[in-house]
Amino acid sequence: MTSEHSMATATSALIPSIDGSLLRLDQVSWQTYCDLREAPENRYVRMTFDQGRLYLMSPSRLHERIAELIGRLIATYTETESIPILSGGSTTMKAQFLNRGLEPDKCFYIQNEAAVRRTDHYDAQTDPPPDLAVEVDVMSLSTVRMPIYAELAVPEVWRWIDDQIEVYHLVGNKYQSANQSACLPGFPFDKAVGALNDRFDRDETSLIAAFRKSLIDPRT
Known about the structure:
By secondary structure, the protein is α+β, with helices and mostly antiparallel strands. The chain is built from 7 helices and 11 strands. It starts with a helix and ends with a helix.
């Protein structure tokens, strides 16, 4: 593939067959990335663009199951604690001035919720970044994505890996491991991880109900 046009055409042909795996392409221009991202047939493909290197992923059932559960756990906690949030889901966060872009597995505005409440569009040049991004690391892609989150100035990232949730705070231009959340102080990671790891034995409705009950009555 020597031209942008041939690369774009070939990529479009390959995308439907990714099926839970990961594909990397090099020497991709910003315009090609944008064209691929905006193509309707690629709406289910997750893309990570890092200065000419493009990663394409079709999320697996495991990936989506964990991401949805973490999102529901966060929603349950913020409802119980009456914390205003705005859910950004997997909003495409791309910035041409950084030559980078990605879709978080989940993202949330918390401290900056009021600042973005009146807009349904993300602009990296004018909008604050989400206060929290969630990474479900099934393919170890977060090692590529964490520096992009740092460039986008996302203050906190949660990374699910090896059946645990790791917390990272942005300090300067790099992430440092932390024991607690800064954007959701008091979030019970032990109970959340327990709920995630019980997913084979209990349905999601029961998991979320039990998690909510444990927030209301810590003795449970």
